[in-house]
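Entry 12.
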Amino acid sequence: MKRISEYIDEDDQEAEENSASFRRFTLLFATGFIVVFIGIILVMAASAFGGNGSASSGIVIFVGPFPIAFGAGPNAGLLILVGVILAALSVAIFVIMRRKMVKEEGYSSSVSCSSLP
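Predicted 3D structure (tokens):
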């Protein structure tokens, strides 16, 4: 039989692991937010001080596994290509991190019928 202190130690270890995971998520989220904010400021400054240049835009939207790309301007093809590459990298990183989580924690997203009421 386990003593109460052993159960408390297991709960403390689980809480520390969850806390470390939350800290990593918060750091990644804050870093992403700051990078996007700095990018917006740089684009605004470039357009204000840039003068009479040409503008290009491109967007990639994923509907399920299928990318839909739009673009306008002289460099739209390049912008769409970069968008598709970044989107593919983000999907690949998600899959890798998901496999790592399943492997380390033995986590399964499937629900067994015995756990349903």
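Annotation: Residues 1-53 form one domain. Helices lie at 4-49, 76-105.
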